[in-house]
Amino acid sequence: MIRTVANWKLNGSRTFCKQWFKDFITHFAGDLSSVAIAPPAIYIPLCKELSADEISICAQNLDSLHGAARTGEISLEMLQDLNCNLSIIGHSERRHLFGETSNIIRDKLLKAAKPDFTAIYCIGENLAEYEAKLSFEVISEQLNSELFSISKRINVFLAYEPIWAIGSGKLPSKNEIELMHLHIKDLLLQHKNINLLGIFYGGSVTEDNCIELSQSDAIDGFLVGGASLNGKSFAKIASSFA
Ligand code: PGA
Fold first, then answer.
1. How deeply is 185 buried, as exposed, middle or buried, from its count of CB atoms within 10 A (0-12, 13-18, 19+)?
2. Distance between CA 8 and CA 27 in Å, rounded?
3. CB-CB neighbours of 32 under 10 Å
4. 151 CA to centre of ligand 1 in angstroms
5. What is the model's pTM?
6. How far is the CA of 69 from the centre of ligand 1 (A)?
7. What residues are annotated to the active site?
8. What is the pLDDT along the chain (242 residues), one digit of tens a residue?
9. What distance lies between CA 116 and its chain's CA centroid?
10. Closest ligand 1 atom number to CA of residue 92
11. Most buried in the list 51, 120, 144, 181, measured by CB within 10 Å?
């Protein structure tokens, strides 16, 4: 079962990938099947080769269509053609930098709703919503208009990523994360179509805070951005769940 996912975002090169896997393998103490790496799509084949298929390789995004006039996009069919059966969907950077609306994300989730595919679906509130104590409402609304509006069975890891915590060094308290994860779990368990594989926390997870968070029964895993770029640091974070 996957517990820790590295999201490399727009970082990497062939040299980086090779060095990263060396550093990670040297320092990781655990089961390789508990780890997934999301490199830029162009490096998926190289990462598959370097991981010897023991670590899951994940896409950072997919398009809901295939065989269409959509320059620059990558389809689920193309990912599966590379034996990549896992993708992040709805990351806040896709929502805010690339204008992905709830409708677009719902279509992507619908596309990913296949027996042999798994989505890592990201949701989270912004700072103003957090400060106004609207986090629970915002998360419920996101789930209603995206995940709960699809009628097909979907395999999903839910990643709770408060937007204000991503790359900022600021985190909600452990208790706040736990309460939100329990809220999300309650909502998801009411939907028979959802095969919930785990609820991850994402946003400024580091070597320093991972141990405390990983000890919580409500946190099944992490989605890690910045701290995943160093193979040794990410190995330490992933080892906290080992
Ligand atoms: P961060 O990013 O770990 O750098 O905060 C998390 C994410 O964007 O998934």
1. middle
2. 18
3. 15
4. 30
5. 0.98
6. 31
7. 91, 161
8. 999 999 999 999 999 999 999 999 999 999 999 999 999 999 999 999 999 889 999 999 999 999 999 999 999 999 999 999 999 999 999 999 999 999 999 999 999 999 999 999 999 999 999 999 999 999 999 999 999 999 999 999 999 999 999 999 999 999 999 999 999 999 999 999 999 999 999 999 999 999 999 999 999 999 999 999 999 999 999 999 97
9. 17
10. 8
11. 120
- Residue 191 C-alpha to ligand 1 middle, in angstroms? 28
Shortest-distance atom of ligand 1 to CA 9: 8
C-alpha distances in Å from residue 141, one per residue of 107, 108, 135, 145, 152? 16, 17, 10, 6, 19
Residue 107 · residue 143 · CB < 8 Å = no
Cα gap 123→202, rounded to integer Å: 10
Burial class (CB in 10 A: 0-12, 13-18, 19+), 177: buried
Q: Which residue type is seen at 167? A: G
**Which ligand 1 atom is at minimum distance from the Cα of 203?**
5
Q: Which of 10, 60, 224 to mutate to test the pocket of ligand 1 (most atoms within 8 A of CB)?
A: 224
Question: DSSP letters along 170-181, please?
Answer: ----HHHHHHHH
Neighbours of 114 (CB within 10 A): 16
What is the 205 CA–ligand 1 centroid distance (Å)?
7
Distances (CA, A) of 69 to 17, 72, 192, 214, 224: 31, 9, 35, 43, 33
